[in-house]
Amino acid sequence: MAHSPLLHDEPLRQHSDHDRIPPDGLEKPQHNPHDRQRPTFFAGRLENWWLGELVAVLSSCALVVALCIILKKYDGQQVPSFGTWFNSGITLGTLVSLLTTLSVAMALSTVQECLSQLKWLWYSGASRPLGDVETYDRASRGLTGSVQLLWKLRFTPTASFGALLTIAHLAIAPLAQQSLLSLSVPVVELDGKATIPSTKDWGENRQQTQILGMPADYASISPGMKGAIFNGVFASANVTINDTLPICTTGNCTFPDYQSLALCASVADVTPRLQNSTGKGESRWCLPGGFCASNNLTTNSATYVVANISSAVTQADKNAAEDAVQSGSLNYTSLAFADHVTPVGDFYIIYTNMTENAWAAVEFVLDWCVPTFSTQVTNGTAVTSRRPDPFMNFDAEPGYTITGHVGGEEVTVDPSTHYTLQRYLNLSLSGLAYVAEVDNYADSDQVEKLVTFFGIGGQGTNVSATRADGLAALDAMLANTATSMTNYMRSRLQVDYVNGTAFAQQNVVHVSWAWIAAPIVFSAASLIFFVTVVALCSLHRSVKPPLWKSSAIATLRCLDPRLHHGLGGAPGRMASNGAADKQSIHLVRDGEGWMLVQGTSTKATSFEEAGIALTGYK
User: Fold this and answer.
1) If you ran DSSP here, which 8-state letter would residue 34 be given?
2) What SS3 class is residue 120?
3) Which of 318, 375, 495, 581 gets the most CB atoms within 10 Å of its CB?
4) Closest Cα to residue 590, out of 11, 36, 7, 21?
């Protein structure tokens, strides 16, 4: 077989596969086949197969699975701590970072080896620029080389995929860190206390001190209830009295809906029921039942009655009740609230403001009720809302306990306490308001407070208030009064308690699974890339390339010596002067080995054939 001449025009001599003189004239050293120890099974698999890369990429996938299992276990749980290391707590975030980094590193090692192997596939059966060796080598080492490969090789599918994986690995760990959040959420505190008082019955013992105007056989109102009434009546207009506060040791509690005996207030405009009964020398406006406001101008022309607050009970009913103190309550004649059987108080306000010189009338009522309460405590602030009582009416017979029924449970009010409260409110809230010359007067402070809502004298009077404004202000004041009285009833010692659930704020793990897709996709893509490269190398149709991967020794040993002449010798500027890109090489078999040879032939499959093709080279 003919061989190409050496650089000094000396013909090549015949030689065996183990005793070939290379084209540079240097004789190969003789090797004893027993000098090198035969590799073990696993060492051979690591050198001549894909065992190391397969283990690495599968380990990467296993680490991602382990990461998902750990995050699933702690998702929604208290933030864990895994001990200390160098005086620092090892947190779940540390573990996520460690597993993600290891997974990416192991997958990347496989990707890099596969990219290095692709350069041998690149030269198998085709001549390519020698500079592509360096392009592939740089791509397997980092970001800039991968970008260079994408640009220089014009996005070759398989190699470009590996280059993209090399670029993408830089973002995997930061993205995975975004998946882990710590949220402060309430959790049940077993040692916490959450209770709120409620009551299903009400009664007070008789007091020794009687109130002026109260019949002798009636019990006196207790100081606590008197204080509750006036606390509501004289509360500031911009203050809303809260319902009974719960006991919540943790500052965050929830309670089931519950019912409690309470007082409810209602307000209605009854102006359409007013009748003008003005006679000679008198201005008189009346409601049905004989409830009137009158200015007798002949008596004292300088004094004008501008409001009359009277209990909606006729004088005859009052007299009858006084004659039978122990047997019944006051009988009210209601116009707007006839369905209230057992009101604690029912009143009319007949008034005029001097600006409009028009008379109007309002009715308001306080009555027993059993509303449904909803209470919740959040960050130490208690909020209670009421839903209307579907069982407003209580059964009441003279001398007997006032009873109601809610969900099969009986609610009771002591009759003596009820009658006493009626009498006290009747005495406290009734009276006149009038103008004498230029000054405003009222029979009591509470009467003055009530009429100020309708533009009638006194401190805090809103002279520009409309009738609707007055009704809204009166409704707010009565709601405060009813709430204040209810709170007093629920504050005594002999009450029931509704138990709630106490919560404590606790930091828990929240996993955003969308971000975990980053390491999952990267490991899966690395596995797909590995399988693709192995398949391409195994099924290559032209020349099945050797499994050299990133071996630098293999690159040095297989380079055709004649290429040194074309590269300008051994100096290290060959990468900068473009000589490597001008040299075309391809991979051929050299006996039992391989060699990168110069030339553009794609038909030569052995060194001998390539040498024949290169005959005459100088």
Assistant:
1) T
2) helix
3) 375
4) 21
Asked whether the beta carbons of 35 and 41 are under 8 A apart, the reply is: no
**Which conformational region is residue 71 in: left (phi greater than 0), alpha (psi within -120 to 50 degrees), or beta?**
alpha
Q: Residue 427 — very low, low, confident or very high, per pLDDT cuts 50/70/90?
A: confident
Strands (E), 512-613: 584-590, 593-598
- Give percent of the chain with pLDDT exceeding 70: 70
Question: Cβ-count burial of 75 within 10 angstroms (0-12 exposed, 13-18 middle, 19+ buried)?
Answer: middle
Q: Which of 429, 420, 419 is nearest to 221 (CA)?
A: 420
pLDDT of residue 10: 38
User: Which of the two residues, 296 and 174, has the higher pLDDT score?
Assistant: 174
What is d(CA 114, CA 590) in angstroms, rounded to the nearest whole number?
Answer: 24
Rounded to the nearest 10 degrees, what angle do helices 51-74 and 41-48 cross at?
A: 90
Measured CA to CA, the distance from residue 168 to residue 176 in angstroms comes to 13
The rounded distance, in Å, linking the Cα atoms of 325 and 62 is: 89
Only one residue has tokens 């997974």, namely 103
Higher pLDDT, 511 or 186: 511
Tokens (6 digits) for 609: 């054939």
**Strand, coil or helix: 607:** helix
Q: What is d(CA 132, CA 149) in angstroms, rounded to the nearest whole number?
A: 9
- Decide: helix, strand or coil at residue 458: coil
Separation between Cα atoms, residue 217 and residue 448, nearest integer Å: 30
| C-beta of residue 556 within 8 angstroms of C-beta of residue 565 | no
pLDDT for 319 beyond 80: no
Which burial class, exposed, middle or buried, applies to 418 when counting CB atoms under 10 A from its CB (0-12, 13-18, 19+)?
buried
Beta bridge partner(s), residue 424: none
Q: Is 145 helix (H, G, I), strand (E, B) or coil?
A: helix
**Would you place residue 369 in the very low, low, confident or very high pLDDT band (cuts 50, 70, 90)?**
confident
DSSP secondary structure, 250-295, as one string:
TSEEE---EE--EEEEEEEE-GGG-EE--BTTEEEEEETTTEEEEE
Predicted confidence at residue 480, as pLDDT, reads 95
The Cα–Cα gap between 313 and 319 comes to 10
pLDDT digits (tens, 9 = 90+) for 45-100: 556 678 889 999 999 999 999 999 999 998 888 877 776 555 566 788 888 999 99
Q: What is the pLDDT of residue 361?
A: 94
Distance CA 451, CA 101 (A): 77
* Rounded Cα distance, 587 and 597, in Å: 6
Domain boundaries, the chain: 41-179+512-554, 194-505
Contacts of 446 (CB under 8 A, 6+ apart): 230, 233, 234, 428, 429, 431
For 307, phi then psi, to 5°, come to -160, 145
Residues 6+ apart with CB under 8 A from 369: 261, 262, 263, 264, 389, 392
Q: Tell me how far apart the terminal alpha carbons of the chain are, to the nearest angstrom.
A: 20
Query: Nearest 5 degrees, angle CA 254-CA 257-CA 261?
Result: 120
Please list, residue by residue across 246-285, b when 16 or more beta carbons sit within 10 angstroms of its beta carbon and e when fewer do: bbbebbbbbbeebbbbbbbbbbbebeebbeeeeeeeebbb
